[in-house]
Amino acid sequence: MDKEKECLGFRLGKSQKARLFSGTRARLAARGNYPSIRETSEKDIADLFFKDVESHIQLTKEQEYDLAREMHDIRRHLVVVDKDINDRSKSDELKQRLDIRRSNLQLRLDEIRSQFINANLRLVISIARSFMSNRLSFLDLIQEGNVGLIHAADKFDHHRGIRFATYASWWILRRIFQALAEHSYICKLPDQVMSRLRKVSQKLG
């Protein structure tokens, strides 16, 4: 399978890489305008993805703070709930209620994560464009950037006092640099070397 057929999820099996694109397919399928895989070319998939990205509204600073604070509280509650579930002194009836509580908390946490991810897909595209001169295709760069975005959503802490986009940019860039190091050279180079090479290339170019 060539590189173009591997982009946007075709070369993804398990792991978090496929989440964004499977979500895009599900939303478009629900609208009744998503063709089958056999009828869909790579360009069509890219167009559908970009169209789906445009449908998401960016978060305001206040919305971002409120969601991040709620996400932090949910994670803290999950730790307490998990501890109670594993407590042998708790009754089975109580553990069942705790399981339901945990499921609801996890569902809400996933919803908030999705809001952060979907609202910042444009950021991934913007960063990926700056690396289009490299050997990885634009769609592969977006795919790798999305992985970094997912990591950022998992690790974001609003107590650091920075916007999510600022924090996510570091993870997106890190993932893209790793991908370039793995795919652009026969011999794999360390991330620090890749960063230095890019700086030198910019000065020379």
Mean pLDDT: 77
SSE sequence, one letter per element:
HHHHHHHHH
**Largest pleated sheet:** none
Percentage beta strand: under 5%
- What fraction, in percent, of the residue positions are helical? 55-70%
The CA-CA distance between the termini, in Å, is 34 Å
Radius of gyration: 20 Å
How many helices does DSSP assign? Answer: 9
Number of strands: 0
Principal-axes geometry comes out as: elongated
Find the structural class using helix and strand composition. mainly alpha
Uncertain segments: 1-20, 33-39
Task: Name the features.
mainly alpha; 9 helices; elongated; disordered N terminus; 0% strand; 205 residues; 70% helix; single chain
How would you characterize the overall build of this protein?
- With 205 residues, the protein is an all-alpha fold.
- It has 9 helices and no strands.
- α4 (61-85) runs antiparallel to α5 and α5 (92-119) packs across α7.
- Mean pLDDT is 77; it is low at 1-20 and 33-39.
